[in-house]
Write a structure and sequence with these properties.
five-stranded antiparallel β-sheet; single chain; 8 helices; four-stranded antiparallel β-sheet; alpha+beta; Alpha-Beta Plaits
């Protein structure tokens, strides 16, 4: 009887227990799970390990809310100055922190409802600059009467020359047949705290109408008047709105001339050549016709 022979190979065969299809314990040898001891220890600072990272993403680092910017511009309150008398010895002039403490005590003794000072810095040898961030506090300091001495030191307070734009109102569309003095008297009858009248004329209006801008020294009258919405002048019931600060300077980014925007520019866009000193506000003779005519 012939015996069945198995071919001999120089390469030894792997046992069945070592195959890839085996679902036994050798699987863990093929797919190892990471252990805590497999990686070297990583030491982190304690403050970074327990506190979250508050930095915004890279694309949001330079982003800001436009409403916040508009509020900051429209609510910009001017500063006050306090000047100590020249008879005071220079060594006896207090520091900025001491001046802030003296002002707070002065407000408390006179029962002035000032919330807090937003700034108090030295602006000269005997002059200090301080400000508040609230409209009510600003009007209290602007309308109030200051004493002549503070802690036995003679001083003088320099108030702003005029009220800021954030305390201004505008009467819209006043007919040209109403004189400005008549309109001013009608406004004073309705708003007795109105001061600093000025006229606003618009060239784009077809009808001969103008606006009247004025400031209000009383916060209650300033807040109540726009809520009513209108003001009676003569036989007209005209709109009454708050005054919004416009752009201080309008210039074109194409020809870099003052007085118009890029959409109304004439000619090709001018770009600086390599090595050329390029000024943002390139002044031309026709940029200020009124000033050039006066010269």
């Amino acid at each position: 009887m012939d015996q069945q022979t198995t071919p001999v190979s120089s390469t030894p065969r792997r046992p069945a227990s070592d195959s890839f299809d085996n679902s036994g314990g050798n699987r863990y040898r093929l797919a190892k799970h990471p252990r805590n001891n497999d990686h070297p220890p990583h030491y982190e600072p304690i403050d970074q390990q327990h506190h979250p990272i508050l930095a915004p993403p890279h694309h949001q680092q330079h982003a800001f809310n436009l409403n916040i910017l508009k509020h900051a511009v429209s609510n910009n309150l001017p500063s006050f100055f306090i000047i100590f008398d020249s008879s005071i010895d220079p060594s006896s002039i207090p520091s900025s922190i001491q001046v802030a403490i003296m002002l707070k005590k002065l407000f408390t003794n006179n029962q002035l409802p000032i919330k807090d000072l937003s700034m108090c810095v030295q602006a000269g040898a005997r002059r200090f600059k301080f400000a508040v961030s609230d409209k009510a506090d600003f009007l209290t300091l602007f309308n109030g009467t200051w004493p002549l001495e503070i802690e036995d030191k003679k001083f003088e307070v320099i108030k702003p020359r005029s009220l800021p734009d954030c305390l201004a109102l505008v009467v819209r569309y006043v007919p040209s047949d109403i004189k400005q003095e008549t309109a001013r008297q009608q406004i004073l009858k309705a708003i007795p705290a109105a001061v600093g009248f000025s006229t606003i004329n618009y060239r784009h209006r077809q009808n001969s109408l103008y606006d009247i801008r004025f400031n209000v020294r009383s916060l209650e009258q300033y807040q109540t008047a726009p809520d009513l919405g209108r003001l009676a002048i003569g036989h007209h019931y005209l709109p009454l709105t708050s005054f919004f600060s416009g752009y201080r300077l309008t210039y074109c980014t194409a020809c870099w001339k003052i007085g118009h925007m890029r959409t109304l520019a004439s000619g090709a866009i001018k770009r600086p050549s390599p090595g050329e000193l390029f000024r943002l506000y390139l002044q031309h003779a026709n940029d200020f016709p009124v000033l050039n005519q006066a010269q």
